[in-house]
Specification:
Elements: H1 8-22, H2 31-38, H3 42-54, E1 58-61, E2 66-69, H4 71-84, H5 87-101, E3 104-111, E4 114-121, E5 137-139, H6 143-151, H7 155-164, H8 168-171, H9 177-190, E6 193-196, E7 203-211, E8 217-226, H10 232-260
Antiparallel strand pairs: 1-2, 3-4, 3-8, 4-5, 6-7, 7-8
Helix pairs in contact: 1-2, 1-3, 2-3, 5-10, 6-9
Organism: Glutamicibacter ardleyensis
Protein name: IclR-family regulatory protein
InterPro entries: GAF-like_dom_sf, HTH_MetabolicPath_Reg, Tscrpt_reg_IclR_C, Tscrpt_reg_IclR_N, WH-like_DNA-bd_sf, WH_DNA-bd_sf
Length: about 260
């Protein structure tokens, strides 16, 4: 039996705490809430948060009793953005999608077994869905971005993920392995994913995967809105528009990768 490397458990706990704090921005989160989301004991969470704050990775609003991300992460993120952040390339596509459709448009990135929203641009239609916002994370297979990315992962990776995950516990029976496989097949057939109010009733979404230079689905463009704006005839038009922008962005990323290698 392989042994867990010394310190690996602590690193895993620190990572879980940081991810949980990141999903609470900008209002912050309490120690009790972090403990509930991570499954760690409250005293353990408090010790980890205090240690992270001492190093500048978290900040503590003593008056409100809430924890927030700290300045050290901003500095690190600014450096890492040169390699990983595609926001500037994607921004024009997100803006175009919002303008052309009137819906809320997004860019999400794959981070391990999750997607995290990086960009949001609201369209002109006055009624909006706020299920997805910048910094919000969902497991793969949940929300249109996570379905789109999961559908185009290598078959072995997709199956391994479905066998090890338990989406039903938090997101309900509509996210059982069989139901997610059906969504994957639908996505592969259409080219884009459809989320018909599976997270919040009446809040629909459509997503298309964006591929990195090696052909892996690493990001997704998506649109969300109320159900009446996603009738079948419009779904096809929205899907085609998403696929167009996702393809254009994928080509830009491939071109950028080729230029960096010269």
């Amino acid at each position: 039996m392989s042994k867990t490397p010394a310190g690996a458990q602590v690193v895993g706990r620190l990572a879980a705490v940081l991810r949980t704090v990141s999903t609470s921005m900008p209002q912050g989160i309490t120690t009790t809430e972090v403990a509930r989301h991570t499954g760690l004991a409250r005293p353990t969470v408090h010790r980890l948060l205090s240690a992270l704050t001492a190093e500048g990775f978290c900040d503590h609003d003593h008056q409100a009793g809430r924890w927030l991300l700290g300045p050290e992460l901003y500095l690190m993120g600014a450096v890492a953005a040169e390699r990983y952040d595609i926001s500037e390339l994607a921004r024009v596509h997100v803006a175009a999608l919002a303008e052309e459709t009137g819906e809320s448009a997004f860019l999400s990135a794959r981070r391990g077994d999750e997607t995290v929203c990086l960009l949001r641009q609201d369209g002109a239609f006055p009624i909006r869905s706020f299920v997805l916002y910048e910094g919000r994370r969902f497991p793969l297979g949940v929300a249109s971005a996570g379905i789109a990315i999961l559908a185009f992962l290598p078959e072995e990776a997709m199956e391994r993920y479905l066998e090890s995950s338990n989406l039903v516990a938090e997101y309900g029976q509509a996210h059982g392995a069989g139901q997610v496989r059906s969504k994957i097949e639908e996505t592969r057939t259409l080219g884009y994913s459809l989320n018909p109010g599976l997270i919040v009733e009446g809040s629909w979404g459509i997503g298309a995967a964006v591929f990195d230079a090696s052909g892996q689905p690493a990001w997704a463009l998506s649109l969300t809105g109320i159900e009446s704006r996603f009738e079948p005839s419009r779904q096809e038009a929205l899907g085609k528009l998403l696929l167009h922008h996702a393809h254009e962005l994928s080509m830009k990323l491939r071109g950028s990768a080729l230029l960096s290698q010269r």
